[in-house]
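Quick illustration, no need to memorize.
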Amino acid sequence: MTMTEWEKMLAGLPQNDRAPELEARRLTAKRLFRAYNKTTEEDAEVREGIKQKLFRSVGKNVFIEPDFICEMGNNITIGDNVFMNFGCIIFDMGEVTISSHVMFGPRVGIYTTSHAFDPEERIANVVVSKPVKIGDRVWVAADVKILQGVTVGNDSIIGAGSVVTHDIPAGVIAAGNPCRVIRKITEQDRWVKK
């Protein structure tokens, strides 16, 4: 049985990035995120309806500032109490899971796909996609870029301007290009003492 390009994409296999079935899904996502970006805070019900159509699933109390951009939309799962600041972009040919109580600074980018390294494959639109997972209670600061195949553990912080190329464990502050663990988050980091 021959796999569709969509099935290859979900399986992490090489696929044709410009296959008509993928282009059709992109077009649907573009129409939805463009409509979302034209709304205001007064359009809460309209925004909620668009989010329900755009994403695979979306939790409660999810606030996304414009101008939000995604590639497929229906490969994105979002938990409860998530805030995405202005200008976030998610290229979700690979699955993207954003857990609950997550905050994104402005211009955060998640990129699940890599173009082929071989030039002949690259001009033939061959790509491979891998999932990205953001754990619970993670703060991803401004201008962070998260690349394919990365998991960010629960409770961690990714510092502004970082490029995350590999998994980040739970409960740490990580930053840099490439992003690396700086230290664990401890009780000394509390601003309000218990």
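The chain is about 20% helix and 30% strand.
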